[in-house]
Each structure stands twice: as C-alpha cells, then as structure tokens.
Request: fold
Amino acid sequence: MRITASAPGKLMLMGEHAVVYGYPCLVTSVGLRYAAMITPSDDAMVRIETGQLDVPRVVPFAQAGNAPPRETAFVEAVIARFRDEHGLSQGFLLQTDGPEVSYGLGSSSAVTVATAAALDALIETQLDKRALFDLTYGAVLDVQGSGSGYDVASAIYGGTIYFRKDVPEIEPISLVSLPLVIGYSGSKVGTVGLVAQVAALREAYPDLINPIFATMSDAVEQAREALTSGDWAALGRLMNINQGLTDALGVNTGRLSSLIYAARDAGALGAKLSGAGGGDCMFALTEPGVNQAVRESIEDVGGQVIDLPLGVQGVHVTQD
Ligand code: MEV
Reply:
C-alpha cells in the first residue's frame, strides 16, 4: 500500500506581517504542488527521502523530531505530533517530491501539510480540515516558533481564503477569476528573520507600527469586498496602499520596487510584494488589454514572470 498526498503552494495577496499579530489576510493557492508519499514498513524506523538530502534520514520511530536536520524538521514535527497526539506507532518510508524551484511560494508549508494528510490517511484519524490545520500549524510553531499559519491554511483549504489566526477564522472566497501576473525577483529570503525584524520595529515604535497594521487590516476588509464583487479597480488601489505600508515596515527592496513600478507603469491596476518581503515575488493585477505589456515590463527590468494556475484545490489524498 502507498498513500500519496499532494498540497499546493500559496500567494499572499494582502495583509502580510499584520496577520502575525492577529489581523486578517487574503491568500490564494497556486498550482505549484508538493507531494508526500507514505509506504508502511514492518520495523520501528522512519525513513525519509527528500530531494534536499543526499542520503535518506533514518530515525527510530520514537525519536522522530528529536534534533532533526533542517531539511526534515517540519515533517518530523508533524510525525511527532501524530505519534504523541494520535498514537501513530508504526514505521514507514516517507518520500517527498515537487518542483525544485519554489520562488518562495510556500513549498515547505505544502510539504508539511501533504505529510500530515498522508499520515492522517495512514492511521485513519479522519481529521477534518480544521483539526488538520491545528495539528500542522502546531508542528510549524514547534519548529520555527513564529508565523501566522496562513500558508498552512491555504495548502489545506485551497482556493482563495480570508484568514485570521486567532480564532482561527478561515473563510473561502468564491471567485470567477483573478487576473494576476506574478514576478519573481530572483532571490529567496528567510521569512523568520523578516518577521523578527518587523517585531523589533514594532517594539521600538509601537505607536507607529500598530496603526500601520490596523490600516492594513482595513485594507484587507475592503479588498475582500472588492474581490467578491470583482471591483478590480478598487482592489488595485488597495494593493498599492498595502504595498506602501509594507514599505513603511522596512521589508520592501529596491529590486521588488523596480518590478512593482514597471508593472504599474505598464498599466497594471495595482502591484505589490507578496509575503515577507526582502525578495521572493511581487504580483500585479491586470486587465486583458494590458496583460502582455505588464508581463514584458516586469521582464524588461529583470524579473521572471511565473505562470501558475491560481485558486487551485487544497490538499488531497490518493491510495494505491
Ligand atoms: C510570510 O509569507 C508572511 C508573513 O506574514 C509571515 C506569516 O504570516 O507567517 C510575513
């Protein structure tokens, strides 16, 4: 028997950083899928094969999650939670697979969610989406100590969602289309460092930074309305406002700015960075008449346009 779970990456649309402090964000899933394959074994060993490791990691079942290498830390934290919370008590081979280049679009949350869904199927815990979120987000916090969990929610629910971590509130938004162009800045960055950088700024200037988060939150609420009603002109303006606020948080870069302004100059309704900032991706909202010009303009300043389906299905499991 082999169980395969596949989960998508994500594109943060609005509300990055503020979401870490309990404000809402909007996120859509992207068709950059990662898989976790589990084959049960008779021994008490967990064997993990992933493209990031030259040799498989083999660890006694009871020790999974104890001082793991960075490459397997998230999946081992998930394994440890299934072992400790749900009585998972057998060895298995875990193989992960997916695109080598992820552009900062959520490969680690996708692999982590896929592993959780595959283990859920293996021991028939039948966790619903919310319980799967709680377990997987808990595992992410076990490893990195910070983060809102919006990427985990996106990989589980798929589509486009409104997310707030504290309740947690996870609400699907139904959309006919989302006319975006994604541009990769050429460098990947570590989210944890940028989250810490913003936390330090907030600690130093709470009277300035908290109102920025509150304004972002208002922009997210209005963007949710604009998304639902298909008011792209309003959504574009709100994206630009959000971009200005991320700049004030100190996470924008000259390179991201050049891609963003190239897109706006070519007629995009709005353009902003996506996620932690410092690199990774930006995206632009376009109309059919300017789509090609926006793409070319991003490429002219050295950005890489990434074509991916948006709002794709969340995690799903097959067995053979
Ligand atoms: C990073 O993709 C988005 C942040 O808001 C961090 C998080 O929500 O976990 C900066």
